[in-house]
């Protein structure tokens, strides 16, 4: 029996059965000769290569976006020489980028001319994608030394980025604030669409969106439920820029880290809010929302969530590492959120629902 204070031997267990098999080079050679296993081995090989080379894809995409190749091709098809003139990229180097873009299925080549492919057209059409790609160099720089990053030895630029965009400093750089508020508003379209398909508002009377920015989500709510009274709660300098788009909209400036959440709504939404904040802030915000809701009132949490016990390739890589770089919040699993909701007084908590985990997942709770 270990003495008090003595360090316990670490529990170690060997890799699982399939991992042990995969560690055997002989099995790899054998797998190539057995039809059923051959397909599996090759798709695993491809998955490994995609993982290794993923950063080059993202940077090729960034070049395509920054050079505005897709909007140019949306106007009309063009030769490599014509595109070289428009982008000031030497023809031989641009040919390599265009070939990569074709491999990404963003563009395609017909009779010597490049044209927009359906995926490239979708990229241009889905709101927020272009702005999202264009803000990624910040995260890319933060991950330049990933070991130091995970050891916590770096000072990520992203940690100052969003506070700068939304914080008081933004008042001195309106252009930057506008650009990234637009990114939030643009990317909100998909989040709102999925959230409103997953949540019924038929019995609601007044909905308050806490941290609702300039009201993009509420505008989507108003389109779906024109009879609903709406309230927008966000920091004073953020709501100052919110268009008063409906006589049913009440704007309620406040700071949820120090002000109470105003009462009066029977449904409160938190859309892409909790993952920006540490556990202490989240717990006090959830308790304040519990206080503000009437009996039977509902809280809807909508944001990308970790897969928890079943890791999710989109949220547990992109969102979890993004929020780690922000140094303020974290991407939580539904089980973690459920624990925090219980601690905040909520008891009836729905199972998480999602249409596309990389867009958002929704948890609904009601006050008993
Ligand atoms: C990630 S944005 C999400 C905006 C919007 N809900 C959406 O999904 O597009 C976070 C929002 O929370 C607001 N916010 C951050 N801290 C806040 C606080 N202490 N009190 C009120 N709002 C806050 C920000 O101003 C910003 O509008």
Automatic annotation (TrEMBL):
Any one GO BP annotation for this protein: methylation
All copies of domain O-methyltransferase C-terminal, residue ranges: 140-347
Transmembrane region(s): none
Molecular function (Gene Ontology), one example: O-methyltransferase activity
InterPro entries: COMT-like, COMT_C, COMT_dimerisation, SAM-dependent_MTases_sf, WH-like_DNA-bd_sf, WH_DNA-bd_sf
Gene3D superfamilies per UniProt: Vaccinia Virus protein VP39, Winged helix-like DNA-binding domain superfamily/Winged helix DNA-binding domain
Database matches in Pfam families: Dimerisation (PF08100), Methyltransf_2 (PF00891)
Residues covered by the O-methyltransferase dimerisation domain: 50-125
Keyword terms of this UniProt record: Methyltransferase, S-adenosyl-L-methionine, Transferase
Cross-referenced PROSITE patterns: SAM_OMT_II
Protein name: Methyltransferase domain-containing protein
